Amino acid sequence: MADLTSAAPGAEPSLDSLATSGRKVSKASLIDTALAMKDVILPTLAKGPLIRRRGMVTMAERQGMDDKAIRRMQTLRRKYGSGPLVLGIPFRPQALLLSRHDVHMVLAYSPAPFTAATREKQAALGHFEPGNVLASRGIDRGRRRQLNEETLETGCQRHSMGPHFATSVAEEMELVCEEALSKGRLDWDTFFVGWMRMVRRIVLGTAARDDSTLTDLLEGLRYRGNLAFLRPKARHRRRKLLDQLKRYVGDAAPESLAGKMAQHCQDPNQLPHHQLPQYLFAFDPGAMASFRTLALLSVHPAVRQRVAAELAQTTSEGVPQLPLLRAAYLEALRLWPTTPAILRETLEPVDWSDSRLDRGTHLIVFTPFFHRDDETLANAHTFDPDRWVDKVVRAEEGLVPFSYGPVQCPAAQFVPMVASLAMRHLLTRLTLELTEPGRLDPTRLPATLDNFTLSFSAR
To answer: What is the DSSP string of 258-317?
Structure first.
């Protein structure tokens, strides 16, 4: 076993503390393994880990699938304790994390000894971005991570090209507003079409604004990626996607993320065109969270009034901070995580109390459980954006909407910035009222919310 005391930077606790944590590794019975598969793992896979299947998301809300999954996880923790629970699955050890402290530790000590490039993730991402940083290990991972961080200016709430991006956001959201006003209604499809025009401009440049063929091709490959090992690679379509992206990088608009990536690329092995599908991919759940935030504000008039006051104090130019609107967005991500499972794999045996996790164990962080665990988290099922105002992501509390640690999503500041700008324009130009407010009970919000069927009256 490697020396684990210096694996994570800063003031993170030593991984050696796992050896004395009292949280032992347990082995689930066959019955409990079957129940965990039925209530937690299979519904998550059925909804689509890389791209959501609309029908399954609708069914998940109607049947309360995530509520059932959270209760199942709580039941397992009460029965087995809060240490990792190894499921009785042959050939591939799988362990559910049941403690927010273990989540904090595992994410803090990624990518070693807990790698994010699990075999499952490599198989899924191999359908459309095999050279992406998330599927990479070792030196390649470090170099590609650096390129992504430099491009996205990780850690900065306002990107240096933010004013240019704000113009793109305003122009595309204005077209969404005009269409919504003409119909008297804002639905998902109207919003998402405009959102993706905006995304293509930001990521690839104005020349890509109407290149829906590219994003449709990526969407099809993501559907294949949902099944990871179970579907063969569509190599011709993957090559077509990556070749098109390579051309965009080679002729990149300076004020686009592709242009910035081209400027910072120092090594062809950084494979910038393999990083860009993830940018387009990441904005998809960004749209889901934005639409859900609008729904939350519609049924929480007190917060909506505070957001309106915040917007009234900003100018239409530049990139304002908008701390409350950004906090509302983060709270929507807490309530309905767009990354339902964070995956890690042990690169070596890891001691856990007086027990051990074997090398090659696949660790599953089921984020809805930790974000809605009313046994450990106050106000778990209510909308409380103030928990995020002027605060960083609190992984020690199990709140990890963008993961955490050295493998945290490098766009953890960038996507909320863009989403806040988009929502600012919609909320300033439109009066939006949720057409089915009964779907959201402010006293106990459902654990699943189908963004595809949300709609608003617009005036």
So the answer is: HHHHHHH---GGG-HHHHHHHHHHHHHHHHHHHHHHHHHHHH-HHHHHHHHHHHHTS-SS
